[in-house]
Specification:
Length: 394
């Protein structure tokens, strides 16, 4: 009955966790939830006011399919001043969240059977979006010893005549790695040589504790083949408002606008007004949230360092830590998936929710988010320590 497209989709593993978390909470259990992928801060007042004003001013009708001109101009200005990249407003397309910006990108550039390289571990929606839009995900396993950063040799081995694009997520979910300018340049040069589009998912750009370079900034040739994907969900804590955007060459932007026009028209005008206010006046809020995340990152690593046998990649951006549980492979009983077993035991026996690494393509890891209070983070890590001590080296 279902289309092959629908059948090709892998059900979300995280959904199963949140269903169980909800059920346990209903039973009155207190769950420490470190599985969440969204900021715990409220949307800044300036952005909320922008939305309220838009409603009062009756900005509630259809607008341009590719997004509001004023917001596109503000995004172009942001890209110029913060990232040193010049785009015209017509090169920006505003969509209902970065997720739809990614979908729009794939719809605009992929033909059936085109390959899209996805460095693994990866954010779990990438392969599904590629499949849904007719492409073929090609995973490239990166190595923990390289901090899971893609190397040019790994890239070269993955390129075929069918490679159309690559997704580079910087800073990354689930690892929090940040590519340096030099690392990006080596990869981008190889991609340009092979005429491959770079889909640069930079949604965590403003939650970055190291120097951030946008790949499009590196040269005009690289910029011409890059589609920047970004949005307001993470940096402005506006997940529910659904505002994302792309910046790319005009031809692709026009195609995306046309596609979006038929499928969804455009994101809510109210949300776009809120995003505009947030972008123009939210700098202080963004900086304060980043500072809080960085302090929590430090709190997490200090406590993780106290757990014998456990290793992790120190994150330089986003709000996740990818923690290696591989040491339990010989000591913990499990059937199919180590990370699923660990996540399930942590939730059932220790009331701690985490995401199993298998959801991101690596079963030796779990992902912890630090979008909770210091007390919850400490309690969560204390539970993880007890679990590890009970199961490691037995
Ligand atoms: N890209 C990455 C790497 C993400 O982690 C997420 C959300 O979790 C998104 C894109 C989607 O963000 P949005 O809420 O703007 O659709």
């Amino acid at each position: 009955m279902l289309s092959n497209r629908a059948k090709s989709i892998t059900p979300s593993l995280t959904l199963g966790i949140s269903t169980k978390v909800k059920a346990m909470k209903k039973e009155g259990k207190k769950i420490i939830n470190l599985s969440i992928g969204e900021p715990d801060f409220f949307t800044p007042e300036v952005a909320k006011e922008g939305g309220i004003e838009a409603i009062k001013a009756n900005q509630t009708k259809y607008d341009a399919a590719s997004g509001m001109l004023e917001l596109k101009q503000a995004i172009a200005e942001k890209l110029k001043t913060e990232n040193n990249i010049e785009y015209q407003a017509e090169q920006i397309v505003i969509s209902s969240g970065a997720k739809y910006s990614l979908t729009n990108t794939m719809l605009a550039i992929l033909n059936p059977g085109d390959e899209v390289i996805i460095p693994s571990p990866y954010w779990l929606s990438y392969p599904e979006i590629v499949k849904l839009t007719g492409g073929v995900p090609v995973f490239v396993k990166t190595k923990a010893e390289n901090n899971f950063k893609l190397t040019v040799d790994e890239l070269k081995q993955a390129i075929t005549a069918k490679t159309k694009a690559i997704i580079i997520n910087n800073p990354s979910n689930p690892i929090g790695i940040v590519y340096s300018k030099e690392e990006l340049k080596v990869l981008a040069d190889e991609l340009i040589k092979n005429d491959i589009y770079i889909i640069a998912d930079e949604i965590y750009e403003r939650i970055c504790y190291a120097d951030f370079t946008s790949v499009a900034e590196l040269s005009p040739e690289i910029k011409a083949k890059t589609i920047i994907v970004n949005g307001m969900s993470k940096s402005l804590s506006m997940t529910g408002w659904r505002v994302g955007y792309t910046a790319c060459e005009t031809k692709i932007a026009k195609a995306m606008g046309a596609i979006q026009g038929h499928l969804v028209s455009h994101p809510s005008t109210i949300s776009q007004h809120a995003a505009l206010a947030g972008l123009k006046e939210g700098a202080e809020d963004i900086a304060a949230m980043k500072k809080a995340y960085q302090a929590r990152r430090d709190l997490m690593t200090e406590n993780l360092d106290k757990i014998n046998g456990l290793t992790y990649i120190k994150p330089e951006g986003a709000f996740y830590i990818f923690v290696c549980i591989g040491a339990l492979r010989d000591t913990l009983e499990f059937t199919d998936s180590l990370s699923l077993t660990v996540a399930d035991k942590l939730l059932t026996d220790y009331q701690l929710a985490v995401v199993p690494g298998v959801a991101f393509g690596d079963d030796d890891y779990i992902r912890l988010s630090y979008v909770s209070s210091d007390d919850d983070l400490k309690a969560g890590l204390s539970a993880l320590k007890t679990f590890f001590e009970n199961n490691y080296d037995k």
